[in-house]
Amino acid sequence: MRFFIAIAAAVVLTSTAYAGHHEKKAVIEQYTKIAHAMYSDSLTTAKRLQSIVNRLIAQPTEANLAAARTAWLAARVPYQQTEVYRFGNAIVDDWEGKVNAWPLDEGLIDYVAASYGAESEENPFYRANVIANKSIKISGKTVDTSRITKALISKTLHEVNEVESNVATGYHAIEFLLWGQDLNGNGPGAGNRPASDFDPKNCSWGNCDRRAAYLKAASDLLVDDLVWMTNQWAPNGKATVGLVKGDVKKGLSTILTGMGSLSYGELAGERMKLGLMLKDPEEEHDCFSDNTHNSHYYDALGIRNIYLGEYRRIDGSVVKGPSLSSLVAKTSKGVDQELRSKLDATMSAMGKLVKAAEAGEAYDQMIGPNNKAGNARVQAAVDALTSQTKSIEKAVAALGLSRIKFEGSDSLDNPSAVFQ
After folding, report:
1. Residues paired with residue 319 on neighbouring β-strands, in sequence order
2. In this structure, are residues 166 and 105 in contact, taking their beta carbons and an 8 Å threshold?
3. How many CB atoms lie within 10 A of CB 58?
4. How do the pLDDT tens digits run along the chain, 420 residues long?
5. pTM over 0.90
């Protein structure tokens, strides 16, 4: 009798453990499904942008330029939500610099205003202006740039001389080409490039055919890069298989590393607090288009999506399934409720940034000097992100995972170093 009871107890324990393992695996699988949906949407919107860019090049009118800008803004919505996958997933982090690197020294690509400066001690290509020059010198050798192609901008120009601000590809290179420089400082107004910059028959700043070629190459390359990443998160893709077939605890740690690192070091620190400290309009993420409020909002939404196991696609459908939230709640309802509340508070704070921007106060104005209300609005979002990160740490503990190291930022961890 005792032997039978012992066997029965063992079976119960085994089935309970398996159920826990199975549930954790399901959360990881849902994480990969959301990734595939997000990158698929990013690809769809990038293809729309590519199509309208082609129309702009064929017919360089102000209406087509406005349409291309609108398409670029729409493309940012799904992509920014993917950034929660960057930290913890090496396959994303190693790739991300090709599509979303910032800030960029735009003088590498095209003409800039005199106020930009003539040179930079850190960057010999600060004013290379590839669009205006059919050859440039790299490491003492003359490089032919007469044909602006995907290969030229991605393999030769991007991060040339190992300078990270030599950003030649991705969303922000395209943004610069569509808007031009924002010369308004902390004042109102975004970039205001004219459509005639792409019109060889009525060229405003010279080299219009080459500028159009650069815009096309960058737009085509963005689509190529997103095709590749979308495939990595397909059911049989490398990123998906690596997580689904890998160690469960490592998989959950990867998810939480992405949440905590984007929440704290990257978004609260490098993208928000640093700019607030420096009062520098160049420290805004989408600086040419004045779209930074939306970039920050959708970054934060991406974090919330992953915790809740859901994502609203651009067609309005919802990808929803097993979540970290349900896992945490089974161990500690209090921690789950706290983190959900903190995520909601962050979205509320981000929503206030969006509301202010839509009312006419751009993000570079919010972080400017002598704007107490704007500064306070941004600081409130930073505080909300910092607070939610502490709750993410509690979720890590509730799941019995080893302590995870999130990305940090001097602006939060060692503010005095920022001004050294």
Report:
1. 311
2. yes
3. 10
4. 333 333 333 333 333 344 488 999 999 999 999 999 999 999 999 999 999 999 999 999 999 999 999 999 999 999 999 999 999 999 999 999 999 999 999 999 999 999 999 889 899 999 999 999 999 999 899 999 999 999 999 999 999 999 999 999 999 999 999 999 999 889 898 999 999 999 999 999 999 999 999 999 999 999 999 999 999 999 999 999 999 999 999 999 999 999 999 999 999 999 999 999 999 888 899 999 999 999 999 999 999 999 999 999 999 999 999 999 999 999 999 999 999 999 999 999 999 999 999 999 999 999 999 999 999 999 999 999 999 999 999 999 999 998 799 999 999 999 989 987
5. yes
Q: Tell me which residue of 271, 308, 284, 253 sits closest to 191, measured CA to CA.
A: 284
Look-up: residue for tokens 């979303």? 100
Write out the two tokens for 16. Answer: 């309970």
Compute CA distances 293 → 122, 179, 299, 377, whole Å: 29, 17, 10, 11
- Asked if residues 349 and 72 have their Cβ atoms less than 8 Å apart, the reply is no
Dihedral (CA of 297, 299, 303, 306) sign: positive
Calpha distance 279→409 (Å, rounded): 17
Contacts (Cβ under 8 Å, ≥6 apart) of 18:
none
DSSP code at position 404: P
Q: Return the number of other C-beta atoms located less than 10 Å from residue 240's C-beta.
A: 21
Peptide bond preceding 103: is omega within 30 degrees of 0, i.e. cis?
yes
Nearest to 299 by CA among 254, 348, 266: 266
Under DSSP, is residue 312 helix (H, G, I), strand (E, B) or coil?
Answer: strand
Output the six-digit token pair for 182.
């924002």
